[in-house]
Amino acid sequence: MTLVALALALWAGAWALNVRLAAGPDQRRAALLVPALFGLTLLMLWELLVRGLAVPMVILPAPSRIGAAIAANAPILWTDFVQTVLRGALPGYAIGCAAAFAVALLADRVPLLRRGLLPVAGMMAALPVVGVAPILVMWFGFDWQSKAATVAVMVFFPVMVNTVAGLSAAEAMQRDLMRTYGAGYWSALSRLHLPAAMPFVFNGLKIATTLALVGAIVAEFFGSPIRGIGFRISTSVGQLALDMVWAEIAVAALAGSAFYGLIAVTEKRVTFWHPSNRD
Amino acid sequence: MTEAAAPGPATLAAATARRRLAARGAALRQSVLPVLGVIAALIAFWYLACIPMNAAQSVLEAARAGAPVTPAEASERRGMSGLALAVQNPAEAAARAYGQERPRLPAPHQIGAEVWAATAQVAPTSPRSLLYHGWVTLSATLLGFAFGAALGVLLAMGIVQFRVMDLSVMLWAIVSQTVPIIAIAPMVIVVLHSVGISGIVPKAAIAAWLSFFPVVVGMVKGLRSPDAAQLDLLKTYGATARQTFLSLRLPGSTPYLFASLKIAVAAALVGTIVAELPTGAQAGFGARLLAGSYYGQTVQIWSALVAAAVLAALLVALVGAAERLVLARMGLRR
Amino acid sequence: MSGAVVEAEGLGLTFATGDGPVHALKDVSLSIGKGEFVSFIGPSGCGKTTFLRCVAGLEAPTSGSLRVNGMSADNARRARAYGYVFQAAGLYPWRTIGGNIALPLEIMKYPAAERQRRVRETLALVDLAGFENKYPWQLSGGMQQRASIARALGFDADLLLMDEPFGALDEIVRDRLNEELLALWARTGKTMLFVTHSIPEAVYLSTRIVVMSPRPGRISDVIESPLPKERPLEIRDSSAFIEIAHRVREGLRAGMEAA
Amino acid sequence: MSGAVVEAEGLGLTFATGDGPVHALKDVSLSIGKGEFVSFIGPSGCGKTTFLRCVAGLEAPTSGSLRVNGMSADNARRARAYGYVFQAAGLYPWRTIGGNIALPLEIMKYPAAERQRRVRETLALVDLAGFENKYPWQLSGGMQQRASIARALGFDADLLLMDEPFGALDEIVRDRLNEELLALWARTGKTMLFVTHSIPEAVYLSTRIVVMSPRPGRISDVIESPLPKERPLEIRDSSAFIEIAHRVREGLRAGMEAA
Amino acid sequence: QDAVTLQLKWVAQAQFAGYYVAQDQGFYEEAGLDVTINPGGPDIAPEQVIAGGGADVIVTWMAAALAARERGVPLVNIAQPFGTGGLQLTCLAETGVETPEDFPGRTLGVWFFGNEYPFYAWMAQLGIDTGGTSDTGVTVLRQAFNVDPLLQGQADCISTMTYNEYGQVLDAGYTEDELVNFNYLDEGIGMLEDGLYVMEEDLEDPAFVDKMSRFVAASMEGWRYAEAHPEEAAQIVIDNDTTGAQTLEHQVYMMTEVAKLTEGSDGSLDPAAYEQTVATLLSAVSEDNPAITEEPEGAYTTAVTDMALGE
Ligand SMILES: Nc1ncnc2c1ncn2[C@@H]1O[C@H](COP(=O)(O)OP(=O)(O)OP(=O)(O)O)[C@@H](O)[C@H]1O
Ligand SMILES: Nc1ncnc2c1ncn2[C@@H]1O[C@H](COP(=O)(O)OP(=O)(O)OP(=O)(O)O)[C@@H](O)[C@H]1O
Ligand SMILES: Cc1ncc(C[n+]2csc(CCO)c2C)c(N)n1
Ligand SMILES: [Mg+2]
Ligand SMILES: [Mg+2]
User: Fold this and answer.
1) Which CATH architecture has domain A70-277?
2) What is the 3-state secondary structure (H, E, C) of chain A?
């Protein structure tokens, strides 16, 4: 119980410190420190609660044990990372986003297609991965191809829907200008519609990054070679090696966040002109 | 408008009715027909795809029935692509593509028949009814969506108003979404179960987990969408943070909110279905998917998928209707 | 008929809005010949912008006929018959000022060197040299408006549609740009359709002044200017000038009272 | 010192942009007493808007001191010391015209009946009666600008900051609004800071005219008006008027040449 | 009435017919028990559920139970309704696999999630590398719990249960003589399958032992009834299937096959079979197969079955 009380006190203290930091003058430092401190507090809280409440390891291991598992199994984690992220998620992401982009352009070009495709696409977007993945594993085999296919299917719709929305985001006045130039389709696309669409496109790309990893992992639950994050998670759950499960989850979260961060930074550079990025 | 110049009420009503009919006809041509067209094209492609997709089984059946097939040896056929098999045995592949019991790709009519059988021909309360499973899934989805949307809006408000929350929460909200939900879901269920919570709540919790994020992202973007000039205006009124929020940020964010709610409701559905896998395949679309996969019932998997997609479409359409209503009231629809 | 650049016959345009139709233009008939400089003046909301948008093929009239360069307005638009300066600057935020001015040049496939030259020239013309690499939101309101004028002047259109281009400019810059515009017009023989609220500006620039009156927007008077083509700024003190200005003012007032 | 509504001392503001700093204001010293009507005039980009934004507490000066009503500009802003008419109308698209004008009234918690009354009155004042339920995009440019003026006049601020409020209006409406504004000022004793490009407008309205010159934006001349408080429109033909207008023009020109 | 929560290892199917029949026929009620049967699923580890307090007794495989025991969940076998096991490797004859010597170079489908222990023990015994890199080794495919990899030509052999997946392969149109089966029992690495396990500390309470003995007795009565009435048992299972996805035909098949595994058992654990399971597991400890590393102590008790059978 003392540990629990300690945990709560720690939480309150860290939060107060964060409030001070965020209000402080050095914003650049705050932007790094605050989230780090927040995460650290979460971890400490977790550790203290698990210990304080004597939660069995097979239910929830403490962060220190997870850390130990990460250190002890680095080579395995690396192999799994390569299999799931580099061979499954990234190619699938690239394929899915490219296809979505192409279809969105087509739909934008042909209004009839757009009116017809969007509702249907909305419907397909809601196809649960867990239903699609087994089918794709059946079709594309158990190795990375089916994972890439699952990821491609998953990222397709958010990217497409956002791109279509973005392609119609240019303001009436901006369009009128293009019309006064009698600009052709490609001209207007590259000079107006694409730049104006970028904030939306990146919205889709960002959502897609979180989906990509999840998709690759889910697909591994429905058949995989004997490596990969999803494979290791489900095998380890079966072996009650929960520390390993969380080690893999940590790897996935880290990889996913890094990927997200990369896209977010690119977004800032590409859409520097958008009011939300201006200052 | 003077009274004298106005047309009589009767003519006016008739004109309005006519206009409305015409408008409805136009709407039909504008929205329904293209959708039907796209669906028709998809289905046509689907039927075509069934032939190579199911060719291996078709040829196997043909061989069993004693028909000549090329290549004749089963071991030679192994590893050949469905397309190659279909090309070499066109008649058999086409004839047997649509009637298989466990097709690799079921034909639309097979799925349709299954859906029909599982909705219209059994009592809606029976576990054999898709309506029953739909209701099980829907109830958890709605609860989770309500929680998730509320949480998302609250977090977004906090993030926009307080810099600490912006710095600390946003990053970890992103991290929460990169955690493989399918790995977490069983643990959430076991943990909640061990503290005595079971039934709809664990599923709803996972649905909320997936649905809060799009709302946070969209809502933060929306709440920040007012441009400098619009914010300056309120500053000149010395508006409080609350007033700025209510009269500028909130209305400015409404289009973004609805766009994210549409994603969120679909995400909540996916979350519920994911949560239904480990809960022991008891009920709901997730259970149907899973059971179908265990017993090789592809048609059943697909019908559950189609049902889930239809449910999703309905939910999204519902949010869309609410969106139109609200935006029209706000004058944002032109 | 031949030689008429803009030819409107009984033109009308009605907007359908949530609470009833708005008659923006009604029965507007006007023929503008090549090389004319026609100013449109009239109270706010009388349909000047709407008329320009019709000519540009950006708005479809609900009645009457309209030909531009002998074609439909839409075809003229596609044939890049004109340059348009909008009432609001409407610069693309993702392009620098230089990039914005180069935009039409890129679309019309001017070679890169030529583009650069023209951007530099028109920027200097509107007194924005040195701001080439700034983004629109870094400019003052008047500077943005000048950039949008430069954008329309950079390429060679025979017809220029300008909607209050000098509204946000100070008198001195405005005078200078008026002179420049007149010189450009005299040099190139372009046809000008020019919306303004300034009576002296209309009189100083135009060969013909169209006075409009509101609700519904109609032409209430058309005044031919007897001023010579050669017009030093001092002409504004001449009695001929003052007389026309007076006529325009009277026309405006009459239109207002009738409405 | 007491009674000075705006008190600037060596005010400077430099924007940091991608390609180097922009000196928008430099060493601006000015004291404006209660009930004065001060116009700012100067070439486009000279810092008029920037100065007004500083007074409004929307921009933080990088040097010098500035007091508004004896407080810091930011505190004055919070105390709702002024009404501001922006250079661009900036109406909220999700509110009707009426709703836009009611916005500050809502924020300042005027009772509903009072709000309605004021919306109706100010709409009539700017000649927009009947457009209460239209949305901004259904209005012409000038109508939007008038709506934004109405928005700033609807509530009782002792200080009015107006950035080219009449730029997009025709002469007749402009004259009428000039008269209205003057009457309002005389009646209420508000303090006015008014940016315009029109020399006659500045002279007609002001008790003092501040002439600015650009790059960096400085005050190049301050002209006190000897005109009486009572000013019929015809005063514009008086020799006193013409003389001041001439001084302003000269001041502008001198500032331009020096820059 | 004493409440008992039973956590199954898998979805409701005839594999667990005995419990459902005992419930349906009122055997539990007669024994003074109020039993809740919770079906399992692909990612629910019953060992985890019982450790979290979500169940009183679970059905699981011995290898998994022993592994859990070593990881701090002190499970104890109280009864073993399945006398023998139904796990096998099923190959397509057309691929040319006839004996274990043909395995190298092949792709084999294996169930994981705690079911991989027997496979790795066997491969260790055969001396076949499972890393998937050498020519002399095999490529291991993590098989989902279905037979797709065999039907889709993605694997040469897959894991099946005699009572379920094997039937599905037959249903897909293959005949018995087109298939080659390697039964783990016959290969000498058989491991005890579905047994009943409880937490060790619970057994310290005599009332709990009594409750369990009544539970085991009633369950075995259920099994006997199910063996005798396969059709009826299958129907009972179907009635308890809340997914509505099962077919009667398949459940009858499953019941018939499961009966072959339960027929020999009166519910008590055969210590020899236990020893063999432990020996096999210990013989092949490796990275892939970390089930147990040392001889377990007190992993089973006959107290419950003695009491149950004594009555
Ligand atoms: N956000 C900004 N970033 C960088 N530079 C700016 C910014 N805002 C204004 N400037 C620069 O500051 C100077 C003064 O601008 P300001 O808007 O005050 O001019 P102004 O006198 O109002 O002109 P106008 O009559 O054209 O509206 C200009 O050179 C402009 O480029
Ligand atoms: N999109 C629209 N929907 C509805 N009404 C509109 C629309 N655009 C313009 N109007 C109406 O049409 C009339 C004419 O507008 P227009 O913009 O042509 O005026 P204008 O003469 O250019 O005025 P200003 O000098 O103020 O720019 C106005 O009453 C306006 O309210
Ligand atoms: C969690 C879990 N999954 C699979 C099996 C293996 N298994 C045992 S019986 C059976 C039949 C399926 O109908 C299967 C697949 C298991 N023991 N536990
Ligand atoms: Mg206009
Ligand atoms: Mg300005």
Assistant:
1) Orthogonal Bundle (1.10)
2) CHHHHHHHHHHHHHHHHHHHHHHCCCHHHHHHHHHHHHHHHHHHHHHHHHHHCCCCCCCCCCHHHHHHHHHHCHHHHHHHHHHHHHHHHHHHHHHHHHHHHHHHHHHHHCHHHHHHHHHHHHHHHCCCHHHHHHHHHHHHCCCHHHHHHHHHHHHHHHHHHHHHHHHCCCCHHHHHHHHHCCCCHHHHHHHHHHHHHHHHHHHHHHHHHHHHHHHHHHHHCCCEECCCHHHHHHHHHHCCCHHHHHHHHHHHHHHHHHHHHHHHHHHHHHCCCCHHHCC
* Cross-chain CB nearest to B236 (options D56, D93, D106): D56
Q: Please list, in sequence order, all residues whose beta carbon lies within 8 angstroms of the beta carbon of residue C246, skipping any fewer than 6 positions away.
A: none
Q: Does C93 touch chain A (CB under 8 A)?
A: yes
Say how many Å lie between the CA of residue C90 and the centre of ligand 1: 17
Chain D contact for B254, CB < 8 A?
Answer: yes
* Residue of A17, A33, A123, A242 to mutate, testing the B interface (most B Cβ within 10 Å of its Cβ): A123
Do B96 and B143 have their domain in common?
Answer: no
User: Which ligand is nearest to the Cα of residue D85, counting in written order?
Assistant: 5
Nearest ligand for residue D217 CA: 1
CB atoms within 10 A of CB E188: 11
* B253 shares a domain with B298: yes
Write down the pLDDT at residue A278: 62
User: A residues 102-141 near B, CB within 8 Å?
Assistant: 112-117, 119-120, 122-132, 134-135, 138-139
User: Which two structure tokens, joined as six digits, stand for E209?
Assistant: 């032992």
- Whether D252 sits inside 8 A of C171 (CB atoms) is yes
B180 shares its domain with B295: yes
Burial bucket for residue C16 (CB in 10 Å: 0-12, 13-18, 19+): exposed
What whole-number distance in Å separates Cα of residue E219 and Cα of residue E16? Answer: 10
- For tokens 């951007």, name the residue: C119
Query: Does residue B236 contact residue D77 with C-beta atoms inside 8 Å?
Result: yes
What would the pLDDT profile of E171-192 be if each residue is shown by its tens digit?
Answer: 887 888 888 999 888 888 878 8
Mutation test of the interface with chain A: which of C53, C58, C87, C115, choosing the one with the most A Cβ atoms within 10 A? Answer: C58
Say whether residue A145 is in contact with chain E using an 8 A CB cutoff: no
CATH number at residue B216: 1.10.3720.10
pTM: 0.84
- 3-class DSSP state of B118: helix
Residue B66 forms part of a structural domain:
yes
B154, B301: one domain: yes
**What does the pLDDT look like over B177-199, one tens digit per residue?**
888 888 888 888 777 877 777 77
**pLDDT, position D182:** 87
Res B254: pLDDT = 83
Q: Give yes or no for residue D55 having a pLDDT over 60.
A: yes
- Gyration radius of chain A's alpha carbons: 23
**Does residue B229 belong to the interface with chain D, where contact is any CB pair within 8 Å?**
yes
CB-based pocket (< 6 A), ligand 1: C 137-143, 168; D 15, 17, 22, 24, 44-50, 87, 217
CA distance C189 to C36: 8
d(CA E20, CA E14): 9
Structural domain of residue B255, as residue ranges? Answer: 130-330
Confidence of residue E197 (pLDDT cuts 50, 70, 90): very high
Q: What is the pLDDT of residue A170?
A: 80
CB-based contacts of A30: which residues, under 8 Å, 6+ apart?
A21, A22, A24, B163, B167
Same domain, B91 and B189: no
Q: At how many degrees (to 10) do helices B250-276 and B200-223 cross?
A: 150
- The ligand 3 atom at the shortest distance from the C-alpha of residue E194 is 17
Which one-letter DSSP state was computed for residue E300? Answer: B
D193: left (phi over 0), alpha (psi -120 to 50) or beta: beta
